[in-house]
Amino acid sequence: MTHYKTALVTGAGRGIGAETVRRFREMGMEVHAVARSKDALDALASETGCIPHAMDVTDAAAVETTFSNLPVDVLVNNAGTAGPDGPIHEADPALLRRILDVNVEAVATLLRAVVPGMRERDRGHIVNITSIAALHPLPGQIAYSASKMALRAMTQNLRIELFGRRVRVTEIAPARVETYFHAQQFSGDHEATKSLLYDGYESLRPEDIADAIAYCVGAPEHVDVTLMEILPTYQVIGGIDFHRGET
Fold first, then answer.
1. Which residues of the chain have pLDDT under 50?
2. Cα dist. 38→13, 43, 44, 142 in Å?
3. Residue 49 and residue 247: Cα distance in Å, rounded?
4. Which one, of 171, 65, 61, 57, lies nearest residue 106 by Cα?
5. Is 146 left (phi over 0), alpha (psi -120 to 50) or beta?
6. Distance between CA atoms of 200 and 235, rounded to whole angstroms?
7. How many CB atoms lie within 10 A of CB 18?
C-alpha cells in the first residue's frame, strides 16, 4: 500500500488522529501514536497494534528525546487546540499562549526531531493539518486563525527548505469535522457543541480526513499533494459584507 515503513501521528487519542492511525496500520506501517490521554492510546494500541506515547506535544524535551533517533518516514502533525470565541482584546493571555504552543511551537519541535533524519535518508512525508482558518478569516477565532496561518506559512517554507530532497510536504485544511474539537469553544461542553454545530448538519467525519491523508501518503513518490482544502458539500465560504453607515 505504501513505500513508507514508520509513521508518527500526533493528536491520536481520538478523531482525525485515531482514524489516521487506523489507516496507516491498514497500509502496513508501524505507527507511533501520540496523545495526552494514556487510556485512549492504550485502547487504540489494543485495537490496532500501534505504539502509544502518552505525552503533551508541548513538552519539547520529551518529544526530542523520544523521536529524534526514530526513523520516521511519515509525520502527521494533527494535534491542535482552540478556545472560546471572542475578540482578541478580551482573550485570556494564558489561553493564547497555549494555542500558539500547541498549534505552532510543538510542530516546530517535531520537525526539529524528525526532519534531519528524513533529509539524511532522502525520503519522507510531512502532513500538517491546518484548517480553513488558515485560508479564510474566522471572526472571533483570531488566536486560532493566527496559529493555523502560521502553520500554513511554516508548511510552505518547509517545502522550499527541502527542495532537492525526496521529502514531500502536504497541508490539509478541513472545514467543520464532527470530532468534538469544537467543544473547546464551549468550555468542553459536548452537548452544546452537538446541538449548535452538528445536529442537522452533514459535517465531515474524521474518517473523511484520514482517507485524504492516506491518499496523499500513498501517492507515488514523484507526486506531492501540496494543499487539500476539504469542505462538507453543504458548507461554503465566501460572500461580501458591506456596512452601510448612516447618511
1. none
2. 8, 9, 10, 31
3. 68
4. 57
5. alpha
6. 13
7. 26
Task: Return d(Cα 99, Cα 112) in angstroms, integer.
Answer: 19
**H or E stretch at 148:** helix 142-161
pLDDT at 109: 98
Q: How far is it, in rounded angstroms, from Cα 153 to Cα 26?
A: 31
SS (H, E, C) 32-70: EEEECCHHHHHHHHHHHCCEEEECCCCCHHHHHHHHCCC
The CATH H-level (homologous superfamily) assignment of domain 6-230 is NAD(P)-binding Rossmann-like Domain (3.40.50.720)
The predicted model scores a pTM of 0.93
Q: What pLDDT is recorded for position 116? A: 98
What pLDDT does residue 1 have?
57
Beta strand segments in 49-199, E: 51-54, 74-77, 124-129, 167-174
Q: At residue 183, what are phi and psi to the nearest 5 degrees? A: -60, -25
Distance, in Å, from the CA atom of 95 to the CA atom of 120, rounded to the nearest integer, reads 37
Active site residue 180: no
Task: Using DSSP, state whether 4 is helix, strand or coil.
Answer: coil
What is the Cα–Cα distance from 172 to 76, expressed in whole angstroms?
A: 10
Catalytic pick from 144, 198, 201, 215? 144
Question: What are the extents of the domains in the chain?
Answer: 6-230
Neighbours of 239 (CB within 10 A): 5
* DSSP type of residue 93: H
Q: How many helices (H) and strands (E) does the chain have?
A: 8, 7
Write down the pLDDT at residue 242: 85
Q: What does the pLDDT read at residue 183?
A: 64
Q: Residue 180, SS3? A: coil
pLDDT value of position 39: 96
